[in-house]
């Protein structure tokens, strides 16, 4: 047998132990011993011996031959186990071996103290480091008998092992399993042989297997948990220690795995984790997990310069439910409460039960307080409805406290205390309501609630109205288009512009209902003007960013309404601001595709005030560009703004778009825009926004002047 010693892992050091072997050599042997499992389990004795014959390492068979412990081999010298009659032969053999790079052989007798002498053959050579010798000891009976004995021993071990043993070839086909492995998966041994490993896995396991096979082929041994499917379809969780198998040339032959069934242990661990982190009644996160989630969301808010809201929800009069109807009914109410609150929040928010009738909600990644109030109001409305339990109708309500991070506190215990205090303010204020911790926010919330109530009444009382601003053709002076502008004729505050109420409509969700009314009213008016003024007359309606994100469900209704009116779809123009294009390009593109499928046209309002304006014209489906009035107002005094407007017009025309200039107020501005080739204009020079009846008169007059 030829021994090849790999290069040492450490530089040689002058420090030596009592055997004369350097510390570096000893380290090297320790590392090598870790990887020499082949020698550890070999059916022959294997030793690493220092030049003074101290035994540095021994495998299992070798230690058994000499009757020594493998952990204490350095207490023994190999020469002491040689029969006295053979000592001179051994000395001559060993002195030759330590100076030979090729193995030399010797036959002699070894013994264990006064025990039986064993005839053996020794094969040895220097290990290449110049500090030790490798010795293989084989019984005189020969390799075959030793191998047979070894194989029988390993056969007993493999078949009686409490761990599954699974061998696959390079194509991941099963070549061997022991009885335990077959039993774990509920098969007979012959049913598993010659079957692919993936036959025992689900889709998730197959995806993981692809990665693991690649690692095996790189020679990486691993221990990990893996799920298999039993013959009866049940899942089995296992702990696997997997080692790749290579031939002498380094070719990957397959892998051998030791497999332990951990299904019961995993189920027990998961149960313990579930009990430690979730409420057993509602299945919601408990206080422990809630605190962890709150900590995580606070870190996210810090990273993104956003804020989060913490809502503390407590049921009103819940103790009376338990006292009157019993705890079983109370538990049913709590479970239904959890379901109702969950229906009011996003999937990304966290709802937890702290205990009793106390719930908390973490609302993360918020951009304004109005969103918090809408959700809190929805919870109050949902929990005020009757609970049907066992044929009984039970009524409770909820008091909610709201604290904001970081304004109300960066310490999370303090934040929870703030929300709790705000909840008690709701209790003191009459219950069935929500309160902010901060007085200023509470006052602002009351103002928003008041405005929200007024707006709901305004929809029913038809207090909203639309004014129309003419859009003039600069080439002819005729009115071909109109922009619909929403106003609110408030019973006590008079006529309100959109800036005074649209933010409230966005925060309380009414913007969708109001926007639907505006579209339908403008479409009806467009149909009337097409009959009275021009068959190609168009009306534009504005969409706020919030409305743009939320009114996706309106499309089908609009489509049907336009059909009922007999109005060509291109008669309606949807005006969006450039800021909308910044908010998730994929979503915006999808929404604009819906508009295009409906036949609606799109105008890009306030053009030039955002970023990447030129790229937007190329990427998004736009029909009109509206130059922002901030550029138009400076045309007569700022050559830079004039040059910019001219460039926008030329660029838009090359892309097949029409251009509308906003905020035109002087004849000079109009003339400059005409010279620049602008298509349309609107502004106070032509007309202020006006009711539909006045608009019709002006439009007819503009046509009369040009003979149209």
UniProtKB/TrEMBL annotation:
One of its GO terms (molecular function) is catalytic activity. SUPFAM superfamilies: EAL domain-like, Nucleotide cyclase, PYP-like sensor domain (PAS domain). Residues 306-439 form the GGDEF domain. Residues 222-274 form the PAC domain. Residues 150-213 form the PAS domain. Residues 448-703 form the EAL domain. InterPro entries: Biofilm_reg_signaling (IPR052155), EAL_dom (IPR001633), EAL_sf (IPR035919), GGDEF_dom (IPR000160), Nucleotide_cyclase (IPR029787), PAC (IPR001610), PAS (IPR000014), PAS-assoc_C (IPR000700). It comes from the Bacteria. One of its GO terms (biological process) is regulation of DNA-templated transcription. PANTHER family: BIOFILM ARCHITECTURE MAINTENANCE PROTEIN MBAA (PTHR44757:SF2), DIGUANYLATE CYCLASE DGCP (PTHR44757). This is EAL domain-containing protein. It comes from Massilia polaris.
């Amino acid at each position: 047998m030829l021994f090849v010693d790999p290069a040492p892992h450490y530089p040689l050091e002058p420090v030596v132990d009592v055997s004369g072997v350097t510390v570096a050599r000893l380290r090297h042997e320790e590392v090598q011993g870790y990887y020499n499992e082949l020698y550890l389990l070999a059916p022959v004795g294997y030793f690493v011996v220092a030049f003074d014959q101290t035994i540095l390492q021994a495998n299992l068979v070798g230690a058994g031959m000499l009757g020594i412990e493998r952990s204490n081999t350095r207490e023994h010298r190999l020469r002491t186990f040689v029969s006295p009659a053979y000592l001179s032969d051994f000395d001559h053999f060993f002195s030759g071996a330590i100076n030979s790079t090729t193995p030399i052989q010797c036959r002699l007798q070894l013994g264990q103290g006064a025990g039986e002498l064993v005839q053996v053959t020794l094969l040895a050579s220097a290990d290449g480091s110049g500090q030790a010798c490798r010795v293989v000891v084989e019984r005189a009976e020969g390799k075959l008998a030793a191998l047979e004995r070894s194989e029988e021993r390993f056969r007993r071990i493999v078949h009686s092992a409490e761990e599954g043993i699974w061998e696959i070839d390079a194509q991941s086909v099963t070549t061997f399993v022991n009885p335990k492995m077959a039993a774990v998966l509920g098969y007979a041994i012959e049913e598993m042989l010659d079957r692919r490993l993936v036959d025992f896995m689900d889709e998730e396991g197959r995806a993981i297997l692809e990665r693991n096979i690649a690692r095996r082929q790189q020679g990486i041994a691993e221990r990990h948990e893996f799920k298999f499917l039993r013959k009866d379809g049940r899942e089995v969780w296992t702990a696997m220690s997997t080692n790749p198998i290579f031939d002498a040339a380094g070719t990957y032959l397959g892998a051998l795995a030791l497999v332990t069934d951990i299904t019961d242990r995993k189920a027990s661990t998961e149960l313990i984790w579930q009990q430690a982190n979730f409420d057993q009644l509602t299945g919601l996160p408990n206080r422990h997990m809630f605190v962890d989630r709150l900590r995580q969301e606070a870190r996210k808010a810090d990273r993104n310069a956003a804020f989060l809201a913490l809502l503390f929800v407590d049921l009103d009069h819940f103790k009376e439910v338990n006292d009157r109807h019993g705890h079983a009914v109370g538990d049913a109410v709590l479970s239904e409460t959890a379901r109702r609150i969950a229906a009011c929040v996003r999937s990304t928010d966290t709802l937890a039960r702290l205990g009793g009738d106390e719930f908390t909600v973490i609302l993360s990644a918020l951009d304004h307080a109005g969103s918090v109030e809408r959700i809190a109001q929805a919870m109050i409305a949902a929990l005020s409805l009757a609970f049907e339990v066992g044929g009984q109708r039970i009524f409770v309500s909820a008091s909610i406290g709201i604290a904001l991070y970081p304004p109300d506190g960066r310490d999370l215990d303090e934040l929870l205390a703030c929300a709790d205090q705000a909840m008690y303010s709701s209790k003191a204020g009459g219950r069935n309501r929500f309160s902010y911790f901060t007085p200023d926010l509470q006052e602002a919330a009351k103002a928003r609630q008041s405005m929200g109530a007024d707006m709901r009444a305004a929809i029913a009382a038809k207090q909203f109205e639309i004014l129309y601003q003419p859009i003039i053709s600069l080439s002819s002076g005729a009115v071909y288009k109109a922009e619909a502008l929403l106003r609110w004729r408030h019973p006590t505050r008079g006529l309100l512009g959109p800036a005074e109420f649209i933010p409230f409509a966005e925060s309380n969700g009414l913007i969708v209902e109001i926007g639907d009314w505006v579209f339908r009213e403008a479409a009806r008016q467009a149909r009337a003007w097409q009959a009275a003024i021009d068959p190609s007359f168009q009306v534009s309606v504005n969409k706020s960013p919030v409305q743009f994100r939320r009114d996706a469900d309106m499309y089908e209704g609009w489509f049907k309404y336009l059909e009922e009116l007999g109005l060509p779809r291109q008669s309606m123009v949807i005006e969006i601001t450039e800021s909308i294009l910044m908010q998730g390009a994929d979503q915006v593109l999808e929404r604009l595709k819906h508009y295009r499928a409906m036949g609606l046209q799109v105008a890009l309002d306030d053009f030039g005030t955002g970023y990447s304006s030129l790229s937007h014209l190329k990427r998004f489906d736009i029909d009109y560009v509206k130059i922002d009035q901030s550029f138009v107002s400076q045309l007569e005094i700022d050559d830079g703004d004039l040059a910019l407007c001219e460039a926008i017009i030329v660029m838009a025309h090359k892309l097949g778009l029409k251009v509308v200039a906003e905020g035109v107020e002087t004849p000079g501005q109009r003339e400059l825009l005409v010279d620049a080739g602008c298509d349309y204009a609107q502004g106070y020079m032509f007309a202020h926004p006006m009711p539909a009846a006045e608009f019709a008169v002006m439009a007819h007059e503009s046509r009369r002047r040009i003979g149209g």
